[in-house]
Design goal:
Helix content is 67%, strand content 10%. It is built from 23 helices and eleven strands. A five-stranded mixed β-sheet has the order 5-7-8-10-9. A four-stranded antiparallel β-sheet has the order 2-1-4-3. A two-stranded antiparallel ribbon has the order 6-11. The termini are far apart. 33% of the residues are buried. Pfam families: HATPase_c, HisKA_3. Its EC number is 2.7.13.3. It is found in: Cytoplasm.
Length: 685
């Protein structure tokens, strides 16, 4: 506070008091048609914008000049309104001003007001002409702007020279107030052009805005001239009143905006955006209220009350689009472009259409919420059973108020949304509904991702099973071909040769018989060979499909196979299973599983004992072959396919069964299969 200086403090306090006093008497005791538009449209924006800038940059010339403009406008307005109040005798019990103040004092009050008005106009020129830093840069600026202070002598020199008071008012107030803002903008254009030539980019970049301001303010000054020609009546007075406050509003808005956006005042202003937006809103709406009231009150002076009310309503409606547009522009500049609730939902819905990865969806949801609702921070966690957790965080999480929305899908929580407070205002029920809707959409997206993952897993499993089925079918076909070739070789190399030898022996026996020799020994040998061929044919047929399996069922076939083994084999089966017949494919698969397992025991296990268990329950046939042999590493059986285990698995899976092999080196091997089984018939049926 010490660096702000007492003169500026006095100016700020005096301006505030005069503004409050002038606003009070102007709205209650005087004709508000002349008081409120100027108060709200010009004085209030300048004073509060200047107070704002001076508070944050007390030594900056731009902030000091803007505060002086606002304070001097308030003081001048207070003097004029007080003089008007005294002249009307409101609340003072006097008939006219001469009964209260002598002419000399009246002249002093009028002169002081005119000097202040002229000082305001000169300060406006200096404020605009010396932007952006408020200091002299080029030759001629100091001399020109300082010489303008000589104009303050006009209110003192003109009255003694015999100039009428009305003419002095026009020369001192109306003309400078109309033309000086345009003059200041023109000087700023010249300054920007000289800065461009000198390579000073900070001032050169003001050229477009300075040109637009010069055109606007000079056009406004031209329109304002008509007020002097028509006095206090007519359309041109109305137009001049509407445009009168325009430069003050524009200057105030531009200074406040540039202070935040471009560091016009040379300091980083750390202020809540809601305060900035509130300041801009106050300036815009003060101007809007002043202009709308001017139209309505002016119409009330010349038209019937009903028509005046209609015009006031029409004026409000006409200025409303401009006010709304300015408010939206201020909001966008302060807070950035913010999505509406509908746009936010649509944008996130579009994101969900391509949400296949939770690791990308979580940050997108967090960013969408933070930007759409202007939140300080957002943290999103997505996941659920069967899915890895995905995190997304935007903004720095600070202590303070926080909200939390779980992502419910049915009775399951698929994530949570955590967020901090808004930066611009409080969290409203509408914001609550938006977050809740987004949470439901996100929960549905997570559920869909999980379904997609499950579907992909099932598709992959089906594809794996399809590949295994194709490989199994290929192996079965190959095994069948191999078995046919084996049978062919056995028939050709074994039985066929024995039958050829048997035919030869019969031919020898017939020759002996023709010569009258002894054929008994030859026939006996032929008989033994025939029995041996029959046994071999029976063994081949048994290898293709054992007749006992077809005639007596699975238990009998397994028991018969076990009896032929060179090691002790014990068969355990329920009595009920011996009387039941199962589907042929199941019985064949179970029998060949047992046969292959026993063959592996004989070839590789070096076992002393084998146990076979057959059981039926819950619609499944359980087949188990266990030995006490040397065992092996069972974890490699599927990949290596050794020991005939691949064929066993193919036969089991071909009928929809499952196979499990348990083995450990030195601890024996257990082959356990479960096959689907439904009873075909009972043996005694």
């Amino acid at each position: 506070m010490e660096s702000r200086g007492w003169p500026m403090r006095i100016a700020a306090v005096s301006g505030g008091l005069c503004l409050a006093w002038a606003g009070l008497i102007g709205s209650i005791h005087l004709d508000s048609r002349f008081t409120l538009p100027w108060t709200l449209g010009a004085v209030v924006p300048c004073y509060f914008a200047g107070l704002f800038g001076w508070w944050y940059a007390p030594a900056h010339p731009v902030a000091r000049r803007l505060l002086l403009i606002g304070s001097l406008l308030a003081v001048s307005m207070a003097l004029r309104y007080t003089a008007m109040l005294l002249s009307l005798g409101v609340g003072w019990g006097r008939e006219d001003l001469e009964a209260i103040l002598p002419p000399a004092e009246d002249l002093v009050v009028l002169m002081a007001s005119e000097v202040i008005d002229l000082a305001v106009s000169i300060l406006v020129v200096r404020l605009l002409a010396l932007l952006p830093d408020g200091r002299y840069r080029f030759p001629g600026e100091r001399a020109l702007l300082r010489s303008m202070w000589a104009l303050l002598l006009l209110p003192v020199v003109l009255p003694p020279a015999g100039v009428r008071a009305g003419t002095v008012g026009y020369v001192v107030f109306y003309y400078p107030e109309a033309w000086f803002p345009g003059l200041g903008a023109l000087l700023l254009v010249i300054r920007a052009l000289r800065a461009r030539a000198a390579g000073q980019r900070d001032a050169a970049r003001l050229l477009p805005a300075a040109t637009a301001g010069a055109v606007l303010f000079l056009a406004r000054a031209s329109a304002r001239l008509f007020r002097t020609w028509q006095g206090e009546d007519g359309f041109f007075y109305l137009l001049g009143t509407v445009l009168g406050a325009l430069p003050y509003v524009v200057i105030s808005l531009c200074v406040v905006y540039a202070a935040f956006r471009y560091r016009l005042l040379g300091v980083d202003i750390v202020l809540r955006p809601s305060v900035v937006h509130g300041t801009l809103w106050l300036i815009i709406n003060s101007w809007y209220l002043g202009m709308a009231m001017t139209l309505g009150l002016t119409a009330g002076q010349y038209l019937p009350i009903g028509l005046a009310v209609l015009i006031a309503v029409t004026a409000t409606a006409l200025f409303q689009p401009l006010r709304a547009r300015l408010n939206r522009l201020a909001e966008r500049r302060v807070f950035g472009r913010r999505l509406s609730s509908f746009e936010l939902l649509v944008q996130f819905g579009t994101t969900l259409e391509h949400a296949y990865d939770l690791r990308r969806l979580a940050p997108q949801l967090a960013l969408c919420l933070k930007e759409g609702l202007n939140l300080r921070w957002v943290r999103v966690r997505l996941g659920g059973s069967g899915l890895p957790a995905a995190l997304g965080a935007v903004g720095e999480q600070l202590p303070g108020p926080r909200g939390e929305f779980p992502l419910w899908y049915g009775d399951e929580v698929l994530g949570v949304i955590e967020f901090g407070p808004r930066t611009d205002r409080r969290f409203t029920p509408e914001d609550h509904d938006v977050v809740e809707t987004l949470a439901r959409q996100a929960a549905l997206a997570v559920h869909n991702v999980r379904l997609t993952a499950e579907l992909a897993s099932r598709v992959e499993e089906v594809q794996r099973q399809t590949r295994e089925l194709q490989a199994s079918r290929a192996r079965i076909v190959h095994a069948q071909d191999s078995e046919r070739r084996r049978i062919e070789r056995r028939l050709h190399d074994g039985i066929q040769q024995e039958l050829v030898a048997l035919v030869a022996k019969l031919r020898l026996a017939r020759n002996r018989l023709d010569r009258g020799g002894d054929v008994l020994a030859a026939l006996t040998e032929v008989q033994d060979d025939a029995y041996r061929v029959i046994d071999e044919l029976r063994e081949v047929a048994h290898g293709i499909h054992p007749p006992v399996l077809t005639d007596q069922g699975l238990v009998a076939a397994v028991t018969s196979c076990a009896r032929r083994m060179p090691v002790p084999v014990t068969v355990h089966s329920a009595a009920r299973l011996e009387r039941l017949r199962l589907p042929l494919d199941v019985e064949e698969s179970a029998f060949y599983l047992v046969s292959e397992a026993l063959t592996n025991v004989i070839k590789h296990a070096a076992a002393n004992r084998v146990t076979i268990r057959l059981a039926l329950g819950a619609g499944r046939l359980s087949v188990e072959v266990a030995d006490d042999g040397v065992g092996f590493a069972a974890e490699h059986t599927r990949t290596t396919g050794g020991l005939g285990l691949t064929g066993m698995r193919d036969r089991t899976e071909a009928v929809g069964g499952t196979l499990r092999i348990t083995s450990r080196p030195g601890a024996g091997t257990t082959v356990h299969a479960r096959l689907p089984a439904r009873v075909r018939e009972e043996a005694g049926a």
